[in-house]
């Protein structure tokens, strides 16, 4: 939980609270920590240059003391307990713990109440000095401004850095999942599930072409136009909560299906069968054209939002990818590309199923083998 803790504490500067500085000029600021990054952001309708200077200032001025660190422990402990009370959060981390043996992606981003109690100012400085480095940073600005203005402020505010950034070293992750099934109880009305197929990847993020192939593949397999979706809805095995995602980053990659179902094990079995059927049949060329246009159009439509543009460009840049190369890759995908990607990415025998059931209720469908 150190990265998340650091995110909270970095807003506290020796000169005062960075949130207050943003508020004084009418800007709204926020931050979040994901599995592989921490992002600091603001939005404003005026005084953009001042707001950007505040952003680039406080992220370069860590200020931690034993007293300020201790003060935050209760706040973050409450946040952790809130997540523990969320069935969506729990079904996801149960799945990650079931899929991964060693990769730290299986660990809760916020940490635990016990782990944050051991965080000290010294540990925060160690984390900051290792990872808060210009070589690790991406600055993305969208909206009514210009490149020259942004570069002028960046040159003014950013301190030169010759020190290399820290490089995480992860223990080797086996190809197999740790366990095929995990179940827990929660105060919910309908069972929830997440089914993850683990991919064997090296210590890197996927490139634009691999990412595009996966996105088109997932649309073909499980979008609301797919035979699988029709079968599951016709049999009333899923509802509108059904969805899918490609969960990936440095050293980990999985395709995940999720939702609510009265028979989650049966849903998992049908998804596995759909994967097998897709491997054994030719790809429908017309359906492939639809999938490519749908994904391309979705990305282009998102460019109507300055928030979406910033998030997309930042995510791509942090993984060494370019969104425009990704769009070109989407439209260049062939049926053979999909077949090859399906074979390398989804092993129908290398999966984990995480299920949360209503308290006192038991599932009655065998785990698929």
Structure description:
- By secondary structure, the protein is α+β, with helices and mostly antiparallel strands.
- It has 15 helices and nine strands.
- Helix 9 packs across helix 15.
- The chain starts with a helix and ends in an 11-residue tail after the last strand.
Write the layout of secondary structure elements.
Layout: H1 2-10, E1 12-13, E2 16-17, H2 18-24, E3 28-33, E4 38-43, H3 48-58, H4 66-84, H5 87-99, H6 113-117, H7 121-131, H8 147-157, E5 181-186, E6 192-198, H9 208-222, H10 227-234, E7 243-249, E8 252-260, H11 264-280, H12 285-302, H13 306-318, H14 323-332, H15 335-345, E9 351-358
Parallel strand pairs: 5-9
Antiparallel strand pairs: 1-2, 3-4, 6-8, 6-9, 7-8
Helix pairs in contact: 1-7, 3-8, 9-12, 9-14, 9-15
List low-pLDDT spans. none
Tell me about the biggest sheet? Answer: 5 strands, mixed
Structural class, from helix and strand content?
alpha+beta
What is the helix content? Answer: 40-55%
How many helical elements? 15
Q: State the separation between the terminal residues, measured CA to CA.
A: 35 Å
Mean pLDDT: 90
Please state the overall shape, judged from the principal axes of the Cα atoms. globular
Q: Going across the major beta sheet, what is the strand order?
A: 5-9-6-8-7
Please report which band the strand proportion falls in: under 5%, 5-15%, 15-25%, 25-35%, 35-45% or over 45%: 5-15%
Tally of extended strands?
A: 9
Q: How do the SSEs run, as a string of H and E?
A: HEEHEEHHHHHHEEHHEEHHHHHE
Report Rg. Answer: 23 Å
């Amino acid at each position: 939980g150190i990265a998340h803790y650091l995110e909270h504490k970095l807003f506290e500067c020796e000169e005062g609270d960075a949130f207050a500085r943003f508020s004084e000029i009418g800007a709204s600021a926020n931050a979040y920590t994901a599995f592989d990054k921490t992002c600091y952001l603001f939005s404003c309708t005026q005084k953009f240059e001042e707001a950007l200077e505040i952003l680039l200032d406080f992220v370069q001025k860590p200020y931690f003391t034993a007293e300020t660190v201790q003060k935050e422990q209760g706040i973050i402990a409450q946040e952790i307990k809130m997540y523990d009370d969320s069935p969506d959060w729990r079904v996801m981390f149960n799945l990650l713990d079931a899929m991964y043996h060693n990769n730290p992606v299986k660990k809760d981003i916020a940490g635990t109440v016990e782990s944050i109690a051991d965080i000290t100012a010294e540990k925060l400085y160690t984390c900051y000095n290792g990872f808060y480095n210009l070589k690790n940073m991406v600055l993305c600005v969208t909206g009514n401004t210009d490149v020259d203005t942004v570069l002028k402020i960046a040159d003014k505010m950013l301190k030169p850095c010759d020190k290399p950034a820290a490089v995480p070293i992860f223990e080797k992750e086996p190809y197999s999942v740790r366990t095929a099934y995990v179940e827990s109880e929660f105060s919910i009305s309908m069972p929830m599930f997440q089914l993850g197929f683990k991919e064997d990847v090296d210590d890197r993020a996927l490139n634009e072409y691999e990412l595009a192939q996966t996105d088109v593949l997932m649309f073909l397999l499980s979008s609301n136009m797919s035979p699988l979706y029709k079968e599951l809805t016709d049999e009333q095995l899923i509802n509108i909560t059904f969805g899918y995602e490609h969960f990936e980053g440095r050293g980990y990659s999985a395709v995940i299906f999720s939702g609510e179902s009265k028979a989650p094990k049966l849903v998992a079995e049908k998804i596995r069968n759909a994967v097998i059927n897709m491997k054994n049949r030719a790809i429908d060329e017309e359906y492939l054209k639809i999938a490519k246009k749908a994904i391309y159009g979705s990305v282009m439509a998102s460019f109507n939002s300055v928030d979406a543009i910033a998030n997309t460009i930042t995510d791509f840049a942090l993984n060494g990818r370019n969104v425009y190369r990704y769009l070109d890759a989407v439209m260049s995908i062939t049926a053979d590309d999909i077949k090859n990607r399906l074979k390398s990415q989804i092993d129908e025998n290398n999966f984990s199923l995480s299920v949360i059931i209503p308290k006192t209720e038991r599932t009655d469908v065998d785990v698929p083998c």
